[in-house]
Each structure stands twice: as C-alpha cells, then as structure tokens.
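Quick one before lunch.
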Amino acid sequence: MKSLKEEIKGLDMEKIKEKASLLSSTIKTEPVDEKKYHCHKCKDDEWIIKKNEDDREYAVPCECRKERAAERLMRSSRITPEFQSKRFNNFVQEGRPYQVVEALKAACNYVRDLDDKNIPKGGIALLGRPGCGKTHLLMAIANYLLALGTQVIYFPFVEGFNEIKANLDSLETRIYQLQQADVLYIDDLFKGRKEITDFVIEQTFAIINYRYLEKKPILISSEKTIAGLCEIDEGIGSRINEMCRDYRVILQGGIELNYRLQQEAP
Ligand SMILES: [Zn+2]
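Model of the zinc ion complex:
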C-alpha cells in the first residue's frame, strides 16, 4: 500500500484542478473526464489559429465570440434570470389604465432613439405608484440594449446599497463602475421604510452627478415623483429631472393602477 503522501505525489495537480472546476461547472451525472466545451471549434478560446501560405500562424475570432461577449455582458449587468425574461412582447397591456400604456409607449420610443453605438441619447424615468410594471418596462429596455451589445448595469437601490455597506473596502470601485457603465439602471430609487442616510444620499449624488456631467444615460424607477425626489435631495432630483426630460412618465392615480393587486383580487 502506498502512503497517502506518495499517492498525492504521483498525481498531476493541474489535471485535478481542471477536473474539480469541471465538476463544479457541469451537471454531476455527466462523465467528468470528457472535457466539455461550449464551442468545440475554438475550445472556448474564442480565437482560431490558422496558417497562411508561408506557414505563418494567425488568429481569427471564432464565430462564438459575439455570443460569449453577450453572455459576459449579461453576467456583468447583474440582471437575474427571472428578470432576463422581461421583454416588451410579454408586457400585458390589455385592460391596463392608459397611463400604463403611455409608459409602454415611452419605453418603446426610448429604445428607438439610440446613437450609432446603440446607446440611448438621454435617460428615462418611470415614477409613481408601485405595481404598474415600471420594473418590467425598464428591464425590457435593459434586455433590449444588452442584446445589442450595450453595457447595462442593474442597480436595485436597497439591495445595492446593502451590498455596498457590507463591502466598504470596495466602495470606490463599485461607485466607479456605476458612474462609468454605458447605461445604468437604478431600480426603486430611494425606496425603503427607514430614513435615507447621508451616506446613501452622498453616494447616489456622486453617481448621478457624474453621469449628468458626462451625459451618460440612466434608467430610473421610483415610487417618488420628481418633487418627492427633490424633497430628499434637490441636487439628485433636479438632475434626474433634466436627464430624463424627454422620457419621464409619472404614474399617478389610485389603487386601480396596481396590476399585482388586480391579479390577486378574486
Ligand atoms: Zn468558438
């Protein structure tokens, strides 16, 4: 019998690491020693080596490259699989109040108004009552843009700030990412039962002000109106008002706007 030490010595650690990563990334019932590639043409290298007439090697991008880039873009957006399914064509508009239909129209027009790099020319804000489909519509915009190869970062306000507070070491990096993204989607701005702290206001201002000065588009949903946003911080509210001047829908009205409650009613 070999001792454990001897046995370990005889193993190729690189192969073991490779198998371990395969194990965690493939379904457990599949054989682990058969290496699985998403793309067999380039073995996930995204480049294919070819030779020219005088036998010199050169690399050409594989056809899977675009698809992989789209996947990376989707992963970095932090949009969950549930939200990836929110599209324009599965937004229910039949029987909804006209304000909701107006919001849908604004969202559709918004994605028709892109520059030559497929980046929106300004911001869009859907404000007002909960349950009107604001998140669905802005998700539809985000998914549409991602499919065109535009970088979108999704920032759910409450969860996003909880995460920032739990990782203060990376505060600067995170704020920088949110400032720089081609498109930033802030969901449920200033939501929360608790009072909004100076820290949250300062960081939100840093993001909004940077994007305002650099003319970088934002997608914003909030239960607050522009006046409500200004009450919390005038600098933030007034900049959002200006950034989203062409696409700003305020969903006012009673409980009849709330689709979720309608669905639950007997
Ligand atoms: Zn490939």
